[in-house]
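Extended Data, record Glutamate decarboxylase
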Amino acid sequence: MTATTTLKHGDVPHAFTGIGDQNQLNPIFARAGESTDFPLNALPPSESLPETAYQIVHDEAMLDGNSRLNLATFVGTWMDPFANKIYAESADKNMVDKDEYPQTAAIETRCWKMMAGLWHAPDPENAIGTSTIGSSEACMLAGLALKRRWQLARRAAGKPADKPNLILSSAVQVCWEKFCNYWDVEARYVPISLEHKVLDGHDLESYVDENTIGVVAIMGVTYTGMYEPVEKISRVLDKIEESTGLDIPIHVDGASGGMIAPFLQPDLIWDFRLERVASISTSAHKYGLVYPGLGWVIWRTVDDLPSELVFDVTYLGGHMPSFALNFSRPGAQVLLQYYLFLRLGFDGYYRVQKASQDVAVYLASEIGRMPAFELWNDGTDIPVFAWQLAKGHTDKWNLYHLSERLRLKGWLIPAYPMPDDLTDIVVQRIVVRNGLSRNLAESLVVDIAEAAAYLDALDSPMPTEGLVTSFTH
């Protein structure tokens, strides 16, 4: 028989008396050392229990915003439980160590060949590509290949090769500014305007010359989500070549649109179907649906990547070709990309991206109906759109105030000025990612309408001191 204790009214079980092991009272927050402040900017002098360190890190991370309500970032914030399991099982894999992890290296090759086919490379088996930490590294590798190809051609012709330039939209992502700065390439920015909201080939002949290494076309401009018309840009460059002899290649920055257009706009000509497109990059941790950070860059053919840029690296007893700015980097995200390709296939990616686009179009339509706002675009390219205050609507508040008001409800929706020549226009932008449901979107519409009504009802203008741009690439 098991002995039992009968509790009388007023008796307190032993575990709640505070007698004995204090962990029985509260296994974490009453533990010795839990109430001690850890130094914020110095290494603690001694060790702590793993549970204590975990709880402190966990609690600090709670102070971040809710990632599901973060409509500022393009970066994915959700994967399914099986992906999380793969992530946990492969977090120790180093992508650069292809001799130690040959299967992960083989899977990396499978992934970029799948994408070469998705982007209509003339011969995916004869294309060349690599994974990267993100699309910024992918863009820089593509830019380096453009520069080196130009230099080799100039030197072979006996011409100087010391003043390269690159043609960019003024709304280009900051990684291209970094590329030009770091690698001594002159950035020639074609300004966007109300008449030309993207780089569309207008006046391009005024910017290119014999020192132009290439033109960057963006599939999904960061500021607004709009596609730049790659086919139109290519036709303009064809005409320039006919009149000047300049053969200028295109790199397509498909950070976002590279994993949207093949599924939602399959008839749009923007990829390797255009012979002038030498390389394409994308960000797998955006609409590739993988956790950060992973990017891809693919060249049309092996010949489009100068062999001088590829190193044969000896590492841990093995030899491997390497073209990267980083050395050691995670291999887990490559496996996650492969998992998604197998899990979703073409139809699955279509359904996921279409669901995001449907929510973006719904939100744009509802916001566009509100008298306070004018849409910049409608979310029918990538699932991203922007809007500005309607002219003459109010002098009491601006979109920075609306952004702050929505933050009170947990929504992170940035407000920021447009680029050069349009800096007097402030817009707000919503990025719809996998995980923003129609139900959440309907709640957001209500919150935006209520916030605008609250601001409209003010008796006097809101203060403008301390307002900050919250632009997120």
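Summary. The longest strand covers residues 212-218.
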